[in-house]
Amino acid sequence: MPILKTRAVTAPTLFAILLLFGVSVYGQTSPEIAFTVSMPRPHTHLFDIDVSIKRGPAATAPNEELLVMPVWTPGSYLVREFERNVQDFTTTDAAGKPLNWEKINKNTWRVVTNGSRDWRATYKVYANELSVRTSELNSSHAYWNNANLLMYLEGFLTSPSTVRVVAPDVWKVATGLPGVPGQRNTFRAENFDVLYDSPFEVSNFKSILFNVKGVPHRIVIDGAGNYEPERLRRDVQKIVETQVELMGGEIPYRDYTFILHLRSNTGGGLEHANSTSLGYSPFGFAITRGDRLTSASPNAAEAQRDYRGFLSLVSHEFFHLWNVKRIRPDALGPFDYTKENYTKLLWVAEGITDYYSDLTLRRAGLITDGDFIGATARAIQALQNTPGRLVQSVEESSFDAWVKFYRPDENTINSQVSYYDKGAILGLLLDLEIRKRSNGAKSLDDVMRTLYTEFFKKNRNYTPADFQKAAEAAAGGSLEDFFANYVRGREELNYNAAFEAVGLRLETTLLGANNQPLERINFGADLRQDQDRVMVTRVYAGSPAYDQGLNTGDQIVALDNVRVTRDFFNARIAEKKPGDIINLTIFRFDELSTLLIKLGGRTDGTFRIVPLPSQTEAQKRMLRGWLGG
Question: pTM of the entire structure?
Answer without folding.
Answer: 0.90
